[in-house]
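Weekend entry, working from home. Most of the wet-lab plans are on hold until the incubator is repaired, so I used the time to fold the two sequences that have been sitting in the queue since the last round of cloning. Logging both here for the record. First:
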Amino acid sequence: MATATRHYTPAEAAALSGLAVKAVHNAIDKRIVETDARPSPKRARRSLSVEDVLRLKLWYEVGPILSQERRQRLFAEIEQHPTAKRVKADALVIVDVEEARKQIAERVRALEAAETVVVKSRAILGGEPVFKDTRIPVRLIAAMLEDGASETEILDGYPKLEPRHLALARIWTAAHPRRGRPKTLADRSAKVRSVSRAPLKADSGTTRSRRGAA
């Protein structure tokens, strides 16, 4: 792959492999994949190569049919035959490594494309990530898709967006999850227009009893 030299954060690796971030961290903790600890002023950063992403993807996808020992043998075979399209896991299981690499490569290209159209500036919505040349929050679009909004509805509501922006919003948000507590609708630039309060109606029986007591 052309981007083989790039390393990814656990969140990015999760977006590329289709796994949950928790599963990626679990794999790192169990040393299913080895990571580079890159020191920073605050903490060491876990870093994974594209080959690590492939290993993660295959580890969990063949898990239901292969034991841990057989999976390890599979990875040894892949390392010995890095250009092989299909690798024999055992006498009965053949893994389509080429297809797995193809899926990851497509996601890598999508993530790279997303990173070119998503920008952040304190002058725009206080630094909230938006699509380039717009004030449309990327996470808002991803949240709308997650909540069931159709692509047609979103594109009608945001004429500056194209269909590709919606796909890019999904993978960018997956690769860059928000830290801290989830934001409210107001935080996402979705405002509650009005709140109405109605007095509770007293139970008719209770009303009669009160009148009788009076």
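Second, folded right after the first finished:
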Amino acid sequence: LLELRNQKRAGENSVPDDHADALRPLHRPEPLSTGSGNLLRVIDRDVRVVFRLERPRMVLFEGFLSNAECEELITSSRRQMSSSQVIDIDTGGEKPSDERTSSGTALAREGTPTIARIERRIAALLNWPLQNGEAIQVLRYDIGQEYKPHYDFVDPALPGSSPFLQRGGQRVASFLMYLNTPNAGGSTSFPDLGLDVPAVKGNALFFAYDCAHPSSRTLHAGMPVSAGEKWIATKWLRENAHA
């Protein structure tokens, strides 16, 4: 299931090593424990833990989404897609970037019964308030498209961080839901860990950051799709309620 790699790349938004705010410990979600087994009942669904890491805190869940939920998210998003952007570290807004070549759309929080059900399931699985999550973002990667190595948190020292952090504080975790299985490519790669997680329909990958700094070991990339397409739904979690 997992491919190990011995490679390391620099992230686009890496954080200065000497910035104290970046090293502030972050309070993070703690996924439910399976006890001695690997199965969890999460509200309405049985979910299996495939693997778990302690640092960074990371869990791969099998079967988090049903086939019907995956198809509904793809179908409802397909006509709303636009070119993906990244956070503008100078202004706090967004801008296009050659580092991220997918297309995407944001789904209003609890905008449909399916979205509401999925968001409640995430909140229960991670033991984290529903209001502390950003809107789910659905992303589509065509052949050759990728998201180069990056961090999901923001550097608090940069000018654009203030308006971002005012809307719920720092990001503390990412929850990636795979809506299909690409024909080839499209894994989620963690260069600092030598780890590749394949994109498998219905699975979900959780990882948290203990600080907003490269020492969190959460540098990651969406690897290029080499055949077919890749669809994922991403939920970023904040310290506080996200407006």
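Plan for Monday: verify the second prediction. The chain has three helices and 18 strands.
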